[in-house]
Amino acid sequence: MEEEHYDIPWEYKKTRYPGQRPHSAAGSISLGGDSPSPTSAPRSGGVFQLHNGDLTEHRLSKTHASRQSLTARPRPAPHVETSILGSKPSTYFGSSRDNGLLPSSSHRHRIRTTHTSFDRDSLIHSESVDRAAAENLLRDTECGCFLLRKRPEGNMALSLKSAQGVVLHIKLEERDNRWILGEGPSFSSVRSVIRYYSHSSHTLPIRGAEHIQLRSPVLVNRFTTEHNMSVDVGLLVVRSLARLPTQLTSVAPLVKKRLYVHVEPPLDLDSSLGKIYLEATKACGKLDVRVLLDSKAKRPVQRVFSEQDAEQEEGLQWLPHQKAYDAVVLGGTFDQLHNGHKVLLSSAVRKANKYVTCGITDGVMIQKKKLFELIQPYELRAKAVKEFIRDVGVDVECRAEAITDPFGPSIVDPDLQCIVVSEETRSGGEAVNRKREERGLSTLDIEVITLVEGKDEVLEESKLSSSTRRRELLGTLLREPREQRNVEGVYLIGLTGGIASGKSNIGKFLATLNYEVIDCDKLAHGLYESRPDLVAKIEEVFGKLFVKDGTVDRTRLSAHVFGNREELDKLSNLVWPVVKSEVLRIVAASQSKVVFVEAAALIEAGWQNTLDEVWTVFVPKDEMIKRLKDRNGLSEEQAIARIESQISNQSRIAESNVVFCSLWTYEETQAQVKLACGELKKQSRMEVESEISTLKEIFAMDALTVSETHNPSSDRVAGVLVLLDKKGKCAHKVVEPPF
């Protein structure tokens, strides 16, 4: 998310007049709310027109002004129209007019993109709508049209179309439970702010926009006011690449899972593929967008989005397409299937009559990849590739094969005619042809495809890549938390990682964020001194060489066990059950809602089943060796022996809910940790459990429980609704927002 820049407000004149509330002018937005504190004296209404670049005010009588506000509404913006299907999903065949008709007009509703009434849920856009997206949404609107959008820091921004056609961005800030626009007066709610500045007598506190009246909002879900808010699967009909960014920005919030794109003639599908996926990456990178390639596929979609009137939409049209080859081959990792992969796979499908062979790298071929530890298993990647080709290509067979060398099936199959490559893998295609010549096979035509561009400052990638997608996973919730609770009222998170992974630094950073962190390594060292029975068992198992005068020689013992996996397991079986009991004792006495348990051998000891979540930090093996040589003065052989005495990074990650990588700067690692902590709070994973504990003391466990709390920023009660099952588990929770 880019840093927000706001247009400069002027200092609000804090003129007071007693007991007055603004009266709603005809045509203004009526939301309900309070009068500001402080507020300015009202000024006479007027209409402003732009003449030769100058803003001129024409004074009106009250009657004239009232009529003007009713008749001079902004014209509806030419946003994307939508044809909304009935309650049951409909199938779009996408072939001829005889075989691919859309549902009849009697079963569809055409909804305009501007509305005169709305509620708070449709007024405020999410953080995903940035400055560029806001300007796109306001591009074709009139002066005074606006939208509200959330900002990551908790405030909001009001984006407003000015008389000159530019979009102004004004900060809407919360201070002491009051909302303030620019340097204007404060209000008890966002609704009150909008109501106040929609009045013709109230001046906007922003330089260059003093005379603009808030008129029509661009709503969050403009298409769905009369229907459900969003659908799982939608279909977007594209006829113009120039309008595509606006279409995608408008439609993306209305589709939750997958958006199919149909390219309508005369737009050429092959030349448009890369552009469509590029714009999809920019506008809705998290949405699964798929460009349809075949006219015979039947796909159930719940809503069609089209710029044409729904009543005029008779069917989906296709240009005839002649495929050049029977068999096409391509290769890649195909991890975290993204829009770059979709361009390559779609291009291969468009060229193949019979089958596409897709070589998917695995084994030693992926170990040089950045963050390869997070690469999905081959089976999962192969399934995703086959499903995508079947979904968009239908009649083309997909033959997925695992490859552990640079060539795979491309130098074996004599029927192959074409290889699809990206610009960076062109040399690989040429190497394939040399190998085929050596084997007496025909050479392949090389089709070079331009990939979707993207920029990753950390990995220094110049294109959208699987590495970038894997980096975006760091600090996010990869797997849902475990359901079983072990310590009532405390959310237990294990923090683990291999040797020299940066685990201790993350533990220290979590402590600076006011989380309680139990360092099990230090705890174990203390037990060596406080538990003679444990010391006696260590002496019995490992011999007197490692115990002197009743004290464990930790340095000698560590050197012994870290080079031998079997010996390390022996020590773990002795120490970790005692450490676990001590940890549970500390946690039971803790007053913290969240407690982190930092332990290197956490997975080996089987603790993951005792915890609500496991957070793992790792670095590649080469970096671990380097750190051990620099930090511990070990030889490369000694470093490798220590690393191999522990379980692999992949084994830890397979048991983890959240994963970090400390390969880069401290600041980058800390940013990952902050993201994880933010998601922890945002998803209320531990707050819900804490609330349940409190509610158990007040309400019966087999009843619907409603807890109402007064919101200081509003004059009404904000409800916190918690549904508890008979076991006291939280089944559902709804928190009403403070505006």
Automatic annotation (TrEMBL):
Keywords: ATP-binding, Nucleotide-binding, SH2 domain
Organism of this sequence: Steinernema hermaphroditum
Residue stretches making up the SH2 domain: 123-218
Residue span of region Disordered: 1-89
Bias kind Basic and acidic residues: ranges: 1-14
Family annotation (NCBIfam families): dephospho-CoA kinase, PRK00777.1
Molecular function terms from GO: ATP binding; dephospho-CoA kinase activity
Highest rank taxon of the organism: Eukaryota
Protein name: SH2 domain-containing protein
Keyword Acetylation annotated: no
Biological processes per GO annotation: coenzyme A biosynthetic process
Coiled coil: none
